[in-house]
Amino acid sequence: MPSGGSPSPVAVLQQKLRDCENELEERNRELDQLYNEFREMDRKLNDALKSVVEKNAARAEAEMRLQAEQEKTRLLQERLRRSEEDHMRILQQWRAQTDAAVPLGGGHVAKARGTG
Question: Which stretches are annotated as coiled coil (predicted)?
């Protein structure tokens, strides 16, 4: 120490350097902690995004299956309608043929049908 009890300028600078180094180490620890928190949040966000993407893909697949089933149903309904129309046409033809074959006044076929 120089005379008068005050520290030398070199000692003051060395102490300031040690203080700066300590502060730098503290800041580095804070940055490491923040970086680790950021990595954890990033992982959670990626997991959430992956989940959303998977759910959207599953929903899209389910919608496609639903549309396919709806189309099958529509086609089956159309086939049923045509079948019913064919059945009615055949029934009407049969009635016309039996009515032509049965004499007026009602025969066994007309009585069996409930029309004679």
Answer: 10-86
